[in-house]
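Our preliminary data section would be incomplete without showing what the modeling component actually yields. Below, a chain of 195 amino acids is followed by its predicted structure, encoded as tokens that our downstream tools consume directly.
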Amino acid sequence: MEIFENQFFLVYLLPVVIFFARILDVTIGTIRIIMLSKGMKYLAPILGFFEVLVWIIVISNVMKYANGFIPYIAYSLGFAAGNFIGMILEEKVAIGFVVLRVITSKKADKLINSLNENGIGATYIDAFGGNNEPVNIIFSIVKRNNLDYVLSIVQTFNPNAFYTIEDVRNVNKGIFPATDSRKLAIFSNWKRRGK
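Predicted structure:
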């Protein structure tokens, strides 16, 4: 192809094209892996198709036209940037659910009531902490896009509460804020009709 015979393109533009194409394919790959870990088995293969398509185009051009170390550096930098951008995008999209576990030495009644009033289900147990003092452990399944809101409620009632957050692959039933539960009910009815 004529464009690949142009020295300006090979020296200056090809590394830039490789860099951005690599960002694209690695970003898609990072999101695909996250989708697989969340059990989204129908979306992951579609992303995989585009990831590999871009990768084949990039790697074939690197092997065919790259001279010197600059295209290889661009390829490597694109890989690193693609991982970072993929993780940022996944955080912004906030797909799925998490388990929020709050451990508080303060009485948790007000916090639990506030969570329930806001449509957030909470299960709690009485336990003993590291110094053998009584604590409450509160468990809640939260949509990832509501996590900051739920944490703000926790911080309001107990700014010193210890909490952990873990990803959840699947959720069956639960108490969620009204708008979310309506969406889930609509989806569940649609899913049942489709079977």
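Confidence is low (pLDDT under 50) at residues 180-195. Helices lie at 7-37, 43-65, 70-93, 109-117, 147-157, 178-194. Preliminary results of this kind motivate Aim 1 of the renewal.
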